[in-house]
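Might I ask for a little of your time on a matter of protein folding? The record follows directly beneath this note:
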Amino acid sequence: TPPAPDSSEKKRVKSRLRRFIIKRPPLQSLQEKGLIRDQVFGCRLEALCQRENTTVPRFVRLCVEAVEERGLDVDGIYRINGNLSVIQKLRFAVDQERAVTSDGRYVFPEQPCQEERFSLEDPEWSDIHVVTGALKLFFRELPEPLVPYELFNPFIEAIKLPDPQEQVQRVAELVQSLPPPNYATLRYLVAHLCRVMEQADVNLMTRQNIGIVFGPTLLRPEREPGSLAVGMAQQNQAVELLLAHFERIFPTPP
Protein backbone atom coordinates (compact mmCIF):
# COMPACT_ATOMS: atom_id res chain seq x y z
CA THR A 1 0.00 0.00 0.00
CA PRO A 2 1.24 3.52 -0.74
CA PRO A 3 2.52 5.45 2.25
CA ALA A 4 0.14 7.95 3.85
CA PRO A 5 0.90 11.55 2.90
CA ASP A 6 2.88 13.37 5.58
CA SER A 7 1.68 16.59 7.20
CA SER A 8 3.84 18.81 4.95
CA GLU A 9 2.22 17.32 1.84
CA LYS A 10 -1.26 17.90 3.31
CA LYS A 11 -0.32 21.51 4.00
CA ARG A 12 0.84 22.00 0.40
CA VAL A 13 -2.44 20.58 -0.96
CA LYS A 14 -4.48 22.81 1.36
CA SER A 15 -2.43 25.82 0.34
CA ARG A 16 -2.97 25.13 -3.39
CA LEU A 17 -6.70 24.66 -2.84
CA ARG A 18 -6.88 27.92 -0.88
CA ARG A 19 -5.09 29.84 -3.66
CA PHE A 20 -7.42 28.29 -6.26
CA ILE A 21 -10.54 29.31 -4.32
CA ILE A 22 -9.25 32.86 -3.80
CA LYS A 23 -8.38 33.25 -7.50
CA ARG A 24 -11.67 31.73 -8.68
CA PRO A 25 -13.73 34.42 -10.47
CA PRO A 26 -16.99 35.34 -8.74
CA LEU A 27 -20.26 34.09 -10.24
CA GLN A 28 -21.35 37.61 -11.18
CA SER A 29 -18.25 38.21 -13.33
CA LEU A 30 -18.77 34.89 -15.12
CA GLN A 31 -22.39 35.88 -15.80
CA GLU A 32 -21.32 39.30 -17.07
CA LYS A 33 -18.86 37.64 -19.47
CA GLY A 34 -21.63 35.34 -20.67
CA LEU A 35 -19.80 32.21 -19.50
CA ILE A 36 -22.57 31.34 -17.07
CA ARG A 37 -26.17 32.26 -17.72
CA ASP A 38 -28.92 32.49 -15.14
CA GLN A 39 -31.59 29.89 -15.66
CA VAL A 40 -35.28 30.63 -16.17
CA PHE A 41 -36.66 28.21 -13.58
CA GLY A 42 -35.68 29.14 -10.06
CA CYS A 43 -34.52 32.63 -11.04
CA ARG A 44 -35.71 35.64 -9.04
CA LEU A 45 -38.64 37.22 -10.88
CA GLU A 46 -37.14 40.71 -10.81
CA ALA A 47 -33.79 39.48 -12.14
CA LEU A 48 -35.44 37.43 -14.90
CA CYS A 49 -37.62 40.34 -16.06
CA GLN A 50 -34.66 42.71 -15.96
CA ARG A 51 -32.61 40.29 -18.05
CA GLU A 52 -35.41 39.91 -20.60
CA ASN A 53 -36.31 43.63 -20.48
CA THR A 54 -39.95 42.85 -19.74
CA THR A 55 -42.38 42.90 -16.82
CA VAL A 56 -43.86 39.44 -17.49
CA PRO A 57 -41.39 36.57 -18.11
CA ARG A 58 -41.42 35.41 -21.72
CA PHE A 59 -41.85 31.78 -20.69
CA VAL A 60 -45.06 32.72 -18.84
CA ARG A 61 -46.35 34.50 -21.97
CA LEU A 62 -45.44 31.53 -24.19
CA CYS A 63 -47.33 29.09 -21.94
CA VAL A 64 -50.40 31.33 -21.60
CA GLU A 65 -50.56 31.93 -25.35
CA ALA A 66 -50.31 28.17 -26.00
CA VAL A 67 -53.14 27.43 -23.56
CA GLU A 68 -55.38 30.13 -24.99
CA GLU A 69 -54.74 28.86 -28.49
CA ARG A 70 -55.32 25.17 -27.90
CA GLY A 71 -56.29 24.46 -24.29
CA LEU A 72 -59.20 26.59 -23.08
CA ASP A 73 -61.73 23.88 -23.92
CA VAL A 74 -59.65 20.99 -22.53
CA ASP A 75 -61.30 19.16 -19.63
CA GLY A 76 -59.39 19.80 -16.40
CA ILE A 77 -56.89 22.26 -17.86
CA TYR A 78 -54.32 23.10 -15.11
CA ARG A 79 -55.91 20.51 -12.80
CA ILE A 80 -54.75 17.42 -14.70
CA ASN A 81 -51.01 16.84 -14.45
CA GLY A 82 -48.91 16.25 -17.56
CA ASN A 83 -46.16 13.65 -17.87
CA LEU A 84 -43.56 14.65 -15.27
CA SER A 85 -40.56 13.45 -17.28
CA VAL A 86 -41.68 15.47 -20.32
CA ILE A 87 -42.27 18.53 -18.09
CA GLN A 88 -38.72 18.18 -16.75
CA LYS A 89 -37.42 17.84 -20.31
CA LEU A 90 -39.25 21.07 -21.24
CA ARG A 91 -37.80 22.78 -18.19
CA PHE A 92 -34.29 21.66 -19.19
CA ALA A 93 -34.85 22.92 -22.73
CA VAL A 94 -35.90 26.35 -21.47
CA ASP A 95 -33.06 26.56 -18.92
CA GLN A 96 -30.50 25.76 -21.62
CA GLU A 97 -31.60 28.64 -23.78
CA ARG A 98 -28.83 30.83 -25.16
CA ALA A 99 -30.84 33.88 -26.13
CA VAL A 100 -34.40 35.01 -26.60
CA THR A 101 -35.49 36.32 -29.97
CA SER A 102 -37.84 39.26 -30.46
CA ASP A 103 -40.80 36.93 -31.00
CA GLY A 104 -40.20 35.28 -27.63
CA ARG A 105 -38.61 32.06 -28.86
CA TYR A 106 -35.59 30.50 -27.22
CA VAL A 107 -32.39 29.73 -29.16
CA PHE A 108 -30.27 26.84 -27.96
CA PRO A 109 -26.47 27.11 -27.49
CA GLU A 110 -26.02 24.19 -29.88
CA GLN A 111 -28.10 25.94 -32.54
CA PRO A 112 -27.01 29.59 -32.51
CA CYS A 113 -27.19 29.96 -36.27
CA GLN A 114 -30.00 27.61 -37.16
CA GLU A 115 -33.52 28.67 -38.01
CA GLU A 116 -34.99 25.82 -35.99
CA ARG A 117 -35.76 27.35 -32.59
CA PHE A 118 -37.50 26.29 -29.41
CA SER A 119 -41.26 26.74 -29.58
CA LEU A 120 -44.16 25.36 -27.60
CA GLU A 121 -45.75 24.66 -30.97
CA ASP A 122 -43.24 21.86 -31.57
CA PRO A 123 -44.85 18.37 -31.55
CA GLU A 124 -42.65 17.44 -28.59
CA TRP A 125 -44.79 19.72 -26.39
CA SER A 126 -48.11 18.85 -28.03
CA ASP A 127 -49.70 17.73 -24.74
CA ILE A 128 -51.17 20.94 -23.33
CA HIS A 129 -51.03 19.42 -19.82
CA VAL A 130 -47.23 19.40 -20.16
CA VAL A 131 -47.30 23.12 -20.91
CA THR A 132 -49.58 23.90 -17.96
CA GLY A 133 -47.49 21.63 -15.72
CA ALA A 134 -44.34 23.50 -16.71
CA LEU A 135 -46.01 26.86 -16.04
CA LYS A 136 -47.13 25.76 -12.56
CA LEU A 137 -43.62 24.42 -11.92
CA PHE A 138 -42.14 27.78 -12.94
CA PHE A 139 -44.22 29.57 -10.30
CA ARG A 140 -43.53 26.94 -7.63
CA GLU A 141 -39.79 27.21 -8.22
CA LEU A 142 -39.58 30.98 -7.84
CA PRO A 143 -37.25 31.67 -4.88
CA GLU A 144 -40.07 33.79 -3.47
CA PRO A 145 -43.75 33.33 -4.47
CA LEU A 146 -45.49 35.74 -6.82
CA VAL A 147 -47.13 37.18 -3.70
CA PRO A 148 -43.99 37.82 -1.59
CA TYR A 149 -43.64 36.21 1.83
CA GLU A 150 -44.02 39.52 3.66
CA LEU A 151 -47.51 39.93 2.18
CA PHE A 152 -48.71 36.41 2.98
CA ASN A 153 -50.12 37.20 6.44
CA PRO A 154 -51.71 40.50 5.32
CA PHE A 155 -53.42 38.63 2.46
CA ILE A 156 -54.74 35.96 4.84
CA GLU A 157 -55.93 38.61 7.31
CA ALA A 158 -57.74 40.37 4.46
CA ILE A 159 -59.53 37.13 3.55
CA LYS A 160 -60.68 36.80 7.18
CA LEU A 161 -62.39 40.21 7.21
CA PRO A 162 -66.15 39.73 7.80
CA ASP A 163 -67.27 42.34 5.24
CA PRO A 164 -66.82 41.12 1.63
CA GLN A 165 -66.39 44.69 0.37
CA GLU A 166 -63.61 45.29 2.89
CA GLN A 167 -61.95 42.05 1.75
CA VAL A 168 -61.82 43.27 -1.85
CA GLN A 169 -60.64 46.75 -0.85
CA ARG A 170 -57.83 45.42 1.35
CA VAL A 171 -56.67 42.83 -1.20
CA ALA A 172 -56.68 45.54 -3.90
CA GLU A 173 -54.42 47.70 -1.70
CA LEU A 174 -52.05 44.79 -1.13
CA VAL A 175 -51.91 43.95 -4.84
CA GLN A 176 -51.13 47.58 -5.68
CA SER A 177 -48.18 47.41 -3.27
CA LEU A 178 -46.54 44.53 -5.16
CA PRO A 179 -43.21 45.16 -6.94
CA PRO A 180 -43.84 46.01 -10.65
CA PRO A 181 -42.84 42.58 -12.08
CA ASN A 182 -44.97 40.78 -9.48
CA TYR A 183 -47.97 43.03 -10.16
CA ALA A 184 -47.65 42.74 -13.94
CA THR A 185 -47.16 38.96 -13.89
CA LEU A 186 -49.97 38.35 -11.39
CA ARG A 187 -52.34 40.56 -13.39
CA TYR A 188 -51.41 38.80 -16.63
CA LEU A 189 -51.89 35.35 -15.09
CA VAL A 190 -55.18 36.15 -13.35
CA ALA A 191 -56.58 37.73 -16.54
CA HIS A 192 -55.72 34.48 -18.31
CA LEU A 193 -57.32 32.38 -15.56
CA CYS A 194 -60.48 34.48 -15.88
CA ARG A 195 -60.61 33.45 -19.54
CA VAL A 196 -60.10 29.81 -18.49
CA MET A 197 -62.98 30.20 -16.02
CA GLU A 198 -65.26 31.62 -18.72
CA GLN A 199 -65.09 28.18 -20.41
CA ALA A 200 -65.96 26.31 -17.19
CA ASP A 201 -69.00 24.68 -18.80
CA VAL A 202 -66.56 22.85 -21.09
CA ASN A 203 -63.27 22.59 -19.19
CA LEU A 204 -64.90 22.22 -15.74
CA MET A 205 -62.44 24.72 -14.25
CA THR A 206 -64.70 26.74 -11.98
CA ARG A 207 -63.40 29.59 -9.86
CA GLN A 208 -63.17 27.20 -6.90
CA ASN A 209 -61.18 24.63 -8.89
CA ILE A 210 -58.74 27.27 -10.13
CA GLY A 211 -58.34 28.49 -6.55
CA ILE A 212 -57.49 24.96 -5.40
CA VAL A 213 -54.84 24.62 -8.12
CA PHE A 214 -53.23 28.06 -7.84
CA GLY A 215 -53.75 29.03 -4.19
CA PRO A 216 -50.67 27.26 -2.76
CA THR A 217 -48.68 28.04 -5.92
CA LEU A 218 -49.06 31.83 -5.88
CA LEU A 219 -49.45 32.45 -2.17
CA ARG A 220 -47.51 30.48 0.43
CA PRO A 221 -45.94 31.21 3.81
CA GLU A 222 -42.20 31.22 4.37
CA ARG A 223 -42.71 28.60 7.09
CA GLU A 224 -45.43 25.98 6.93
CA PRO A 225 -48.26 26.70 9.41
CA GLY A 226 -49.38 24.23 12.07
CA SER A 227 -52.69 23.55 10.30
CA LEU A 228 -52.09 22.99 6.58
CA ALA A 229 -55.78 22.51 5.79
CA VAL A 230 -56.83 25.89 7.19
CA GLY A 231 -53.93 27.70 5.52
CA MET A 232 -54.61 26.14 2.13
CA ALA A 233 -58.32 26.99 2.30
CA GLN A 234 -57.46 30.66 2.81
CA GLN A 235 -54.84 30.58 0.06
CA ASN A 236 -57.45 29.16 -2.31
CA GLN A 237 -59.98 31.81 -1.26
CA ALA A 238 -57.44 34.56 -1.97
CA VAL A 239 -57.08 33.39 -5.58
CA GLU A 240 -60.87 33.05 -5.90
CA LEU A 241 -61.18 36.68 -4.74
CA LEU A 242 -58.67 37.82 -7.39
CA LEU A 243 -60.74 36.06 -10.05
CA ALA A 244 -64.13 37.27 -8.81
CA HIS A 245 -63.12 40.93 -8.56
CA PHE A 246 -60.45 41.26 -11.23
CA GLU A 247 -61.50 44.72 -12.43
CA ARG A 248 -61.48 46.24 -8.94
CA ILE A 249 -58.26 44.60 -7.79
CA PHE A 250 -56.31 45.21 -11.01
CA PRO A 251 -57.75 48.56 -12.17
CA THR A 252 -54.90 49.57 -14.44
CA PRO A 253 -52.48 47.70 -16.68
CA PRO A 254 -48.84 47.88 -15.52
In short: The chain has two domains: 45-140, 149-249. Residues 149-249 form a domain with the Phosphatidylinositol 3-kinase; Chain A fold (CATH 1.10.555.10). Residues 180-198 form the longest helix (19 residues).
